[in-house]
Amino acid sequence: MTDSAHILEEMNDRSREVFRRVVEGYLDSGGPVGSRTLTRSLSEKVSAATIRNVMQDLEFLGLIEAPHVSAGRIPTQQGLRMFVDGLLEVGNLGDDDREKIDATVDNPERNVSGLLDRVGSALSGVTQGASLVLAPKHEAPIKHIEFVSLAADRAMVVLVFADGHVENRVFEPPAGQTPSSMREAANFLNALIEGKTLSDLRGMMAREISQRRQEIDVLAQELVESGIAVWDKAGDRDERLIVRGRANLLGESAPEDLERIRVLFDDLERKRDISEFLELAEDGEGVRIFIGSENKLFSLSGSSLVVSPYMNADRKIIGAVGVIGPTRLNYGRIVPIVDYTAQLVGKLISDANRQR
């Protein structure tokens, strides 16, 4: 049992209700909730003094805090996490929200990037937050690989896929590589790669190196990691992070929050390893909620991310969709929206791949 679950279990009914009302009031208004407000909403009629005593106990447990000199309280990050894990009531997806999301795919197209652009915009519009969509990697089997030296610190990998798709990716090779050593690495990979995807190749190379420490294996692994497994380089049509709805966060924020939001988006735009976004979702198929500093993708503690992976026809995670906003997100409404959108995107991409 986690510490949060233990604390929640140990609370009496009054403490649990006061805590829930403080969190729900904060999520609804964004502001602190005071004892006088709670006396009017609690199911049990108690005095403001009694409620203040309960709030002091909750503050001692680290679940709520007083912002500045306010007499009211707001939940801490620990308190929000405990609420999400133990008290959050997730609603059903509303018909209106479903219709708005479905409307974005009424005219299906084979261009996955265009589809994901529209999905990101719809998700942002429905939630009034910023949406994040990680586009899928191209996962067809590879037919042929070539490494081409462009300069001492620049090289290009040419990937020819079995379905006819060709990608050229410019990358910075490991130090000390020569055109000759790159040809040897390509020959080594081409002898092993038939019928394998990029993900298969990365796993295979890790196993090869663990079994036999040959120089060519290590060289090939370095080139795979630095060249093939690049997510956020110029020229990658399909592999990118789509961000929509920045204005939603800016428009509803107090002046003191604007700098925090600016830094948040700077984080997004500066990230070179966008695959971290997908890693957030890989521990399970369902929606995950990251509150404040739990979210390792961003350096800010004042934001929350609700994210869900989407899968291809083989039930393999290929991307993710999410909504980012202030910690006072309406989690009960956002969770089913993100869940439905992720399932819809996975189905559409699987259908598009079958039609190729």
TrEMBL record:
Residues 115-335 form the Heat-inducible transcription repressor HrcA C-terminal domain. The gene is hrcA. GO terms for molecular function: DNA binding. Negative regulator of class I heat shock genes (grpE-dnaK-dnaJ and groELS operons). Prevents heat-shock induction of these operons. InterPro entries: GAF-like_dom_sf, HrcA, HrcA_C, WH-like_DNA-bd_sf, WH_DNA-bd_sf, WHTH_transcript_rep_HrcA_IDD. The keyword Kinase does not apply. Keywords: Repressor, Stress response, Transcription, Transcription regulation. It comes from the Bacteria. The lineage of its organism: Bacteria, Pseudomonadati, Pseudomonadota, Alphaproteobacteria, Rhodobacterales. GO terms for biological process: negative regulation of DNA-templated transcription. Belongs to the HrcA family. It comes from Thalassobacter stenotrophicus. This is Heat-inducible transcription repressor HrcA.
